[in-house]
Design goal:
Distance between the termini: 31 Å
Low-confidence stretches: none
Number of strands: 2
Radius of gyration: 14 Å
CATH architecture: Orthogonal Bundle
Strand content: 5-15%
CATH topology: YggX-like
Helix content: 40-55%
Order of helices and strands: EEHHH
Largest sheet: 2 strands, antiparallel
Strand order of the largest sheet: 1-2
Shape: globular
Number of domains: 1
Structural class: mainly alpha
Length: 89
């Protein structure tokens, strides 16, 4: 499997097999984010959708999630909504 220096995990890890998001952001993710970090984002995104009751087909919600994705990987990080308490497993 191909390796990538992951910006999220700060280490070399298995690369994604394909560009997971369209456009320039998707290309940056493919080149700089590991498969493990992408899975972490998918869990975080699901939490955002559920906790904030977002509708992914709504253009405003999609824009919000795209902005959060960019922050998660390349910015200061995406945070959980205020008052969010993770479920104990």
């Amino acid at each position: 499997m191909t390796k990538v220096k992951c910006v999220k995990l700060k280490k070399e890890a298995d690369a994604l097999d394909y560009q997971p998001y369209p456009g320039d952001l998707g290309k940056r993710i493919l080149e700089n984010v590991s498969a493990e970090a992408w899975e972490m984002w998918l869990s975080h995104q699901t939490m955002l959708i559920n906790e904030m009751r977002l509708t992914p087909v709504d253009p405003k919600a999609r824009k919000f999630l795209e902005d959060e994705m960019e922050k998660y990987f390349f910015g200061e990080g995406s945070v959980a909504p205020q008052g969010y308490v993770p479920e104990n497993k």
